[in-house]
Amino acid sequence: MAGTLPRRVSHLQALEAEAIYIMREAAAQREHPVLLFSGGKDSAVLLRLAEKAFRPAGFPFPIMHIDTGHNFPEAIRYRDQRVAELGERLIVRYVQDSIDAGRVREERGSISRNRLQTTTLLDAIEELGFDAAFGGARRDEEKARAKERVFSFRDEFGQWDPKHQRPELWGLYNAHIRKGEHVRVFPISNWTELDVWMYVQREELELPSIYYAHQREVFQRDGMLLSVSPHVPMRTDELPFEAQVRYRTVGDMTCTAAIPSSAATIEEVIAEVAASRISERGQTRADDRFSEAAMEDRKREGYF
Hints:
Layout: H1 11-29, E1 33-36, H2 41-54, E2 63-67, H3 73-86, E3 90-94, H4 95-100, H5 117-128, E4 132-134, H6 143-146, E5 151-154, E6 182-185, H7 193-203, E7 214-221, E8 224-227, E9 241-246, E10 259-260, H8 266-275, H9 280-284, H10 292-300
Parallel strand pairs: 1-2, 1-4, 2-3, 4-6
Antiparallel strand pairs: 5-6, 7-8, 7-9, 9-10
Helix pairs in contact: 1-2, 2-7, 7-8
């Protein structure tokens, strides 16, 4: 009808459309992609975006989780439940297998296996011939991730060099690689934590229960509230106590802290996130409390 104004696209609609375009571009340009899924909120959003990008057909890639063995049980249950609902193929590779094979060695005095995941991931990519890996990293999480391109090039050793990345002007993405190389693809790079939660609300996505306020036995270490678990031995000066908490991000139990919170509904979580001035990883991930250079060094080695 003449004179009709075009429908206004909302902020979330624009982000969703961009992410779907990115996923379709990667799937079209690469032969053997894989979607990395941890059971966290960001990878849950990736699965919904993949549904919108490729349904009613099946996903043109499998789903893969690199399991450290120190995960929250709630996240593992959610991972298995969600993949079963989708009817897609799940590949799990275990850091413990890398340790048993002598591929990696746990550092003396360290209980976190986060850094060890890199070798397990790169071995899986090489073994299964993946040439692209979708991940849920966002630029607002921390400074090293802010340097990532949407299509982040990795060399034949799985390494990342921020000085040798391709320009991405006008939404054009170049996934051309040589044999042995691969790209990491981050469809929600431009999203914020608040965007993710608003999308979860709009799409009525179920998430692991630990994202919402609940009673939990925790203890304090280095100013952070860690969950009492067999994976995190308490020191003699540390005492457990009950607290009402929730998790802003879901990583290993060894390095992911809870925050005191009464936000038991998604509306309350959104209000809490909107008022926060600290990123979720900066507040609750012990393994991210490095300098920017230290985290960048880990990413250069092939870290997520």
